[in-house]
């Protein structure tokens, strides 16, 4: 499975394990790297010294390529970038911010830069900023999301037509057939979040992993559109936000309901009522917590099977 994405990262498969707050520490990133994917440490929920520790542990746990996801709105961004450079990280996935700010600085240090976008306008901006590849994340995805609500099915072909640099699809992908579909639409790789959030090596709390497995069709919704849109599992906290939004609550009111450390409380500490539980629509198709190696082997085998099936059916 060699293409521009595997050459860019030096991986066996064009699969990226997404950077996810409270889920993707060194254990998950190293397991994904060892399984042949690009593993990402999610810096968004880490203090700078914690990030340094995770990078160092990841380097000990794998000799294969891994990177760091950096949400650009992070308050201590300069410190985070400094640590990434000092620790010799080779790949940065930036999100939630202007790709112009850090791209050339990082590239001058020999770091490959990929930027996450959810619409055409930002894809063109990212390409113009000189990033090495783009992740196009559709409406189905877990975590923070685009206001436009463009689905992966629509977003990938739209961006494929407009950008020349390598394109990675994200949002709603967690199986071999869905990876194949993304590649058919024009992606050259996939970024998978929710499926890995519910893996054995994810640092998410067991309660959260079990809630992902238990979730069915229609049990997530894009919320907080007035603030920063995020796809959430429908729990008590979600209901509170939903009701506030229905009655036209102000930004300040929503901010107060959100409060501080809600995401940590839900995803890391396992408070399923009061915590914020970020997860994608694909949670409805996740039926067990498996190891990263099992997940990747299943995806790769099923991808090949689906591809063969399509080739054979088109011959017949
Ligand atoms: C629990 C969780 C936390 C996330 N945190 C981040 C983050 O810190 N930075 C980021 O760029 N994207 C984040 N995302 C989005 C993922 O990186 C990825 O693009 C998305 O999960 C892909 O869609 P999927 O969940 O359908 O696989 C998060 C997603 C989840 C499920």
Structure description:
The chain has helices at residues 4-9, 26-34, 48-61, 77-86, 103-108, 120-128, 152-162, 176-184, 194-197, 206-214, 236-246, 251-258, 262-268, 292-315, and strands at 15-17, 39-42, 66-71, 91-95, 112-117, 133-137, 143-144, 167-170, 189-192, 220-223, 230-233. It is of the alpha/beta class. The protein has 2 domains: 9-203, Alpha-Beta Barrel (TIM Barrel), CATH 3.20.20; 217-281, no CATH class. The strands form 2 sheets. It has an 8-stranded parallel sheet. A 3-stranded antiparallel sheet has the order 7-11-10, covered by helices on one side. Helix 8 packs across helix 14 and helix 11 (236-246) runs antiparallel to helix 12 (251-258). The two termini are 25 Å apart. 49% of the residues are buried. It binds flavin mononucleotide (FMN). Flavin mononucleotide (FMN) is lined by residues 18-21, 23, 42, 44, 69, 71, 95, 116, 137, 140-143, 170-173, 191-194, 197, 267, 278-280, 282.
